[in-house]
Amino acid sequence: xxxxxxxKSKPFPWRCPRCLEKSVHLATIPYTAQGxxxxxxxxxxxxxxxxxxxxxxxxxxxxxxxxxQIQEAMRAxxxxxxxxx
Length: 85
Ligand SMILES: [Zn+2]
Known about the structure:
Strand order of the largest sheet: 1-2
Helix content: 10-25%
Shape: elongated
Order of helices and strands: EEH
Bound molecules: zinc ion
Oligomer: single chain
Mean pLDDT: 86
Low-confidence stretches: none
């Protein structure tokens, strides 16, 4: 696993990469993620993913934090259990 560059999180709202409006806020949405692991394609449903989303056009902005949530869900799925928070 390679180290990620440190990304400072800026205060919301962010500027949207698609419509360029300053309307990106942190949202909690149900999300179906796909990823590869163990040479197989895994699909994992995340009922409450915290991800920055544009209020204007609905664009989702993937960040390191979003990636971590997806990786965690993938790991939990591989172990056949769901983490309890
Ligand atoms: Zn937008």
